[in-house]
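At this stage, I wrote out one protein, both as residues and as discrete backbone shape codes, and that material follows here.
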Amino acid sequence: MSRPSLPTDRPLRDATRLIHEGEARSGFGEMSEAMYLTSGFAYDTMEAAEARFDGRDPGFIYSRFSNPTVATFEKRMIALEGAEAGRATASGMAAVTASMLCQVKAGDHVVAAKALFGSCRYVVEDLLPRFGVASTLVDGADLDQWRAAVRPETKAFFIETPTNPTLEVYDIAAIAGIAHEAGARLVVDNVFATPILQKPLTLGADVVVYSATKHIDGQGRTLGGMVLGSDQFVMDHLHNFLRQTGPSLSPFNAWTLAKGLETLSLRVHAMQASAAKIADVLAVHPKVTKLAYCGRADHPQAALVAKQMAGGGTLITFRIDGAKPEAFRFGNALQVVKISNNLGDAKSILTHPATTTHQRLAPEARAELGITDATLRLSVGLEHVDDLLEDVETALKAV
């Protein structure tokens, strides 16, 4: 719990703040947050416009910079994450890209874990070097590799934990300590755990990024992203970068995401409960050769999960006995679970990473990460768990 901005005399819990934080009612007293679909704002006088632009008046100027509806979503995310500040973006990848580019320049160096979503790895491995920012990829679980990769010009570390799609879990506190010794910041992509199950800032991370498209929206409706950190990071690095480059979140999407936050805690816990039951069934099935679920005692980093996460999450990754044909037969036999590349949706989703989310990686790079042609990622939704179990068990018969 933390002290609310609401007019109460006591701290409020996350589930309550997800409904009420950032409320800014108009004179009509509406219960649902107003949606300000406007690109610009009017000023009463020329002097008022001047004051707004030179910073004496902190009001809104232009929706590329800020907007009342976007501000509501940002305030709600800041409160949930326990951050000092944050800014919303048009997508999760806009958040990742901005969080890295805003703090580095030519001649700097970035260290990142090898196990990254394909587009995140593109930013680190391909995009940053085009602008003179060198990068080194390491085994995220090997702390000695993080230490060995540090250079005098290292400015940032980047990880996702749990990883996509293999669900490795990395020690945020230990990696943050190595980064800080080097004078670098640690950026954590927390999309799989969600802010409900993991709070990277409390573990020493400097910046947290989200694809709000996933669990935060939670119903596959819209795109969005979020970058959270200290006031100093946001004001000295992120704010002007976003203002000048323009990856702004639309007010409509911000309104949708703010409404999604109201049910985030309920959805994540319900989906997690179903995921745990499905993982237990898959783990002992003869046609499944390997399974990873962060909530099981047989997870390779189970002790670390217990230390830094509040639950096992909504994702399961497993290998079918066979190769691509068997994996495809399983997916094609599903009737309730949908085939897609998204996650965190109310609808359960199956993904074949080798041919979708991680297809741009070379085969040897996928092999190094443990992504085979038989690997499948299941994002568990809100359907009745018995219907999901029946669907999965029927599909396994088709393998």
Notes: The longest helix spans residues 264-283. The two ends are 47 Å apart (CA to CA). The domain at 14-261 is CATH 3.40.640.10 (Aspartate Aminotransferase; domain 2).
